[in-house]
Structures are given as structure tokens and as C-alpha cells.
Design brief:
The chain is α/β, with parallel strands linked by helices and 204 residues long. Helix content is 34%, strand content 26%. The radius of gyration is 16 Å and the shape is globular. The strands form 2 sheets. The chain has a 7-stranded mixed β-sheet with strand order 3-2-1-4-5-6-7, with helices on both faces. Strands 8-9 form a two-stranded antiparallel ribbon.
Length: 204
């Protein structure tokens, strides 16, 4: 199982997927290669993005399976068939069960639009605005069994400006995501991220 062989999981528009695919085309993922897109919504625009990029797509509807576990077992079989070493969640709107997480423990990462542990879960940008914080940002973290609770790999702050709306703040946060996620994925693909308990170090 090679860390450099990457599967991206996404459910929606796929803007972070597109940023990662563009980074790969530009040689900015180092030896990392996106070998597969996995989506739980066959109608999602991200599937078309992947097809246009020439990246294989696995589209599975969870409702076609008797349980979440059987759905994920099908995914794991395909990941193992392709020798995938790293799972990158990019707007994948499902909680992962141990069926998928156990064989990819420490090899599954997610990006979240806040400075975790603040504003975990849904609508993180709206939560930040409602709370009145002056700084929010982006977190890339390992995935564990909780909701945005895994060890933090990298964070970058974004200032909340007077008069910000969810849309205006989201636009600036997304721009940071498109820069930060490829940087972290490259470090992971190159084996430069060390995890010790909850602490991570990215080696140069």
C-alpha cells in the first residue's frame, strides 16, 4: 500500500478535488497521484470534473446497499484492488465507519473550514460568524471515529472582516483551502508527516 496512490472522496461540487487535480498536473503533489474519485452521489458535479481530468470514478449509492458497512466494504475492496495508500476527504458528506477507517487508520485525512476544535460539524462558517470571532480558518486533520476530532496536521487562519456574510467569508476560506490541502497532501504522499499520539510534525 503506497501513500503516493491517492483516492479522493467527494459528494458535491468538487472544488477541493479540482484544486488537488490541478496541483497534480502542475507537479505540486510530488510523487502523489490521484488514482480514484469516490462519490456517494452519482449526480454530483465532482464526478464530471473527475471524468474531464481523466481520473477513474467509483460511484456508489449508499441506499443501494443493505447497510453502511456493506457500502463501505465495496469501497474498501476497490481501494485495495488499486493499492490505494491515502484517502483524502474533500467535501465527502458521510461519517465513516470502522469498516473503512480501520484498514486506513492514520491514512485518512479531511479538510474543515474552521480552526478546530472550534466550530466542528456542519455550517462551521456560519457558526464562526454567529459566535462573533475575529479569526477563523482552515484545518487539515487525520480522521478518527468522531466528528472532526482527529489529530490536526496543519492550520491556516483567515480574518473575519466587518460586514462579512457566510458567502464572503466562505470565498476567502476556500481560497486558503485550495492552497493548504495540496501542500499537506504532498507532504503525506512523500511520507513527511509524523504522528505521535495527537501531535503531528511535517518534516522538511
Amino acid at each position: 500500500m503506497q501513500w503516493s496512490r491517492i483516492a479522493v472522496f467527494a459528494s458535491g461540487q468538487g472544488s477541493n478535488f479540482a484544486a488537488l487535480a490541478e496541483a497534480e498536473r502542475a507537479g505540486q503533489l510530488g510523487g502523489g497521484r490521484i488514482e480514484l474519485l469516490v462519490s456517494d452521489r452519482p449526480e454530483a458535479p465532482v464526478a464530471k470534473r473527475a471524468e474531464e481530468a481523466g481520473i477513474p470514478v467509483l460511484l456508489l449509492r449508499p441506499k443501494d446497499f443493505a447497510s453502511r458497512e456493506l457500502y463501505e466494504a465495496e469501497i474498501v475492496a476497490e481501494l485495495q484492488r488499486r493499492d490505494i495508500g491515502l484517502i483524502v476527504l474533500a467535501g465527502y458528506m458521510r461519517l465513516i465507519t470502522p469498516v473503512l477507517l480501520t484498514p486506513y487508520a492514520g491514512r485518512t485525512v479531511n479538510i474543515h473550514p474552521s480552526l478546530l476544535p472550534a466550530f466542528a460539524g456542519k455550517d462551521a462558517i456560519g457558526q464562526a460568524l454567529d459566535y462573533g470571532v475575529k479569526l477563523t480558518g482552515v484545518t487539515v486533520h487525520f480522521v478518527d471515529g468522531g466528528m472532526d476530532t482527529g489529530p490536526v496536521i496543519a492550520q491556516r487562519s483567515v480574518a473575519v472582516e466587518p460586514g462579512d456574510t457566510v458567502e464572503s467569508l466562505a470565498e476567502r476560506i476556500h481560497q486558503v483551502e485550495y492552497e493548504l490541502y495540496p501542500e499537506v497532501v504532498r507532504a503525506l504522499a512523500e511520507g513527511k508527516v509524523e504522528l505521535d499520539g495527537r501531535k503531528t510534525v511535517i518534516r522538511e
